[in-house]
């Protein structure tokens, strides 16, 4: 058996390579900030050039001609070259440290890093994705357990969270449900700042690839989504069905925990992200990005699961999203304080009282339930919530 010191030495290159990758992402964000600063400086210059009469009687040339154009072109070119050179140098170091010829055990993810990364992606996931930033979370599935079983449990996390939150304090619904029904958990990891429809499309493809090559004959698939995760799973089911994928036919039940089917209050969403540490995460982003909501946050507030129709503008909540007729849908809401909601999503929204899922066949009154005294995060660890899910899934 290798000594702890040997294990630490073997793990160090991979950990260092991951740190360099994160540094590359931070450096790209810094360059994005510099570019935004140049844009703001050019806009201020342009406004000053339009002032009449000119300041101090001296005419100022517009920034898009003459020396102004040369200046801003040079600043942008220099920024691009400097950023590219630093990224190339760091990428070379990362490649050197991440030696693909050395066999190592996979490292356990750092909860602190994963939490910060999840928040960064919630706030600016669409920007990170468009700019191909190394800090962008790519949609993927993470399997728990060594031996695959015929039953599969797919879990999708909430806005600003990550798969580690399903295992709060070393336990949670993933392990409990896996033990109760002898199923293999698959954790969906995605950027919650990207559009729900885009994530749903990617998750549908990931599930098709994984489940079509499952080592055991599949006997059934159960989906559980927390908050935004429920929207993502609904979107994935709809888009997989439209694309003729096979895996939706294996899905028997979908459980949504505190999912904003009818949308959420923007003020409560802002407070939720602040409680998670969104202020610290926003401080790492270029100045203008935290002032605008990411596409994922907009979809969460609207309860939107599909992309906007370019002819009609923004898609209404739940518009056109259909689930297979074989899927039974369950909704659980948390209620604290005055009983109106779980501090993030109202009971009416979580139970779809407004009927945003009216085109879905499975959500009936007997499949709606309120967990009294349980807040939004508490839905992940409540014994009462687990007992209700076990009752539903046993039927």
Please supply descriptive tags for the structure shown above.
395 residues; alpha/beta; seven-stranded mixed sheet; 7 strands; 45% helix; elongated; disordered N terminus
In short:
The protein has eleven helices and seven strands.
Please outline the helices and strands.
Elements: H1 4-49, H2 66-97, H3 111-130, E1 140-143, E2 151-156, H4 173-181, E3 183-189, H5 196-211, E4 220-226, H6 228-242, E5 251-257, H7 266-276, H8 278-282, H9 295-302, E6 328-335, H10 347-350, E7 368-372, H11 383-394
Parallel strand pairs: 2-3, 2-4, 4-5, 5-6, 6-7
Antiparallel strand pairs: 1-3
Helix pairs in contact: 1-2, 4-11, 5-6
Describe this structure in words.
The chain is α/β, with parallel strands linked by helices and 395 residues long. It is 45% helix and 11% strand. It contains 11 helices and 7 strands. It has helices at residues 4-49, 66-97, 111-130, 173-181, 196-211, 228-242, 266-276, 278-282, 295-302, 347-350, 383-394, and strands at 140-143, 151-156, 183-189, 220-226, 251-257, 328-335, 368-372. The protein has a 7-stranded mixed β-sheet with strand order 1-3-2-4-5-6-7, with helices on both faces. The longest helix is centred in the first third of the chain and has 46 residues, at 4-49. The protein is elongated. The two termini are 47 Å apart. Mean pLDDT is 81; it is low at 1-12 and 102-106.
């Amino acid at each position: 058996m290798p000594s702890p010191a040997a294990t630490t030495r073997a793990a160090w290159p991979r950990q260092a390579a991951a740190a360099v990758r994160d540094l590359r992402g931070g450096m790209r964000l810094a360059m994005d900030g510099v570019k935004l600063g140049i844009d703001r400086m050019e806009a201020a210059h342009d406004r000053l050039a339009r002032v009449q009469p000119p300041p101090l009687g001296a005419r100022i040339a517009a920034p898009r001609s003459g020396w102004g154009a040369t200046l801003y072109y040079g600043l942008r070119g220099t920024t691009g070259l400097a950023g590219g050179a630093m990224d190339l140098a760091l990428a070379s170091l990362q490649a050197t440290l991440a030696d693909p010829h050395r066999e190592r055990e996979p490292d356990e993810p750092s909860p602190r890093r994963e939490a910060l990364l999840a928040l960064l992606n919630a706030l600016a996931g669409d920007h990170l994705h468009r700019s191909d930033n190394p800090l962008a979370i790519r949609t993927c599935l993470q399997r728990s357990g060594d031996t695959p079983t015929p039953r599969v449990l797919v879990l999708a996390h909430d806005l600003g969270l990550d798969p580690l939150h399903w295992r709060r304090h070393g336990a949670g619904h993933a392990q409990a449900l896996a033990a109760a029904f002898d199923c293999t958990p698959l954790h969906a990891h995605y950027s919650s700042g990207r559009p729900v429809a885009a994530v749903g499309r990617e998750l549908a493809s990931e599930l098709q690839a994984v489940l079509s090559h499952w080592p055991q004959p599949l006997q059934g698939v159960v989906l559980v989504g927390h908050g935004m995760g429920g929207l993502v799973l609904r979107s994935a089911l709809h888009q997989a069905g439209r694309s003729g994928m096979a895996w939706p036919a294996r899905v028997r039940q979908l459980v949504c925990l505190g999912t904003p089917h009818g949308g959420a209050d923007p003020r409560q969403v802002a407070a939720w992200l602040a409680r998670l540490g969104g202020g610290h995460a926003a401080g790492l982003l270029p100045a203008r990005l935290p002032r605008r909501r990411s596409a994922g946050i907009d979809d969460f507030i609207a309860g939107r699961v599909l992309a906007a129709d370019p002819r009609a503008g923004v898609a209404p909540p739940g518009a056109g999203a259909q689930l297979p007729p074989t899927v039974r849908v369950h909704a659980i809401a948390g209620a604290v304080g005055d009983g109106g909601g779980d501090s993030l999503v109202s009971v009416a929204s979580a139970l779809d009282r407004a009927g945003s899922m009216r085109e879905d066949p499975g959500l009936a009154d007997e499949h709606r339930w309120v967990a009294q005294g349980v807040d939004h995060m508490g839905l992940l660890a409540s014994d009462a919530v687990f007992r209700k899910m076990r009752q539903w899934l046993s039927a």
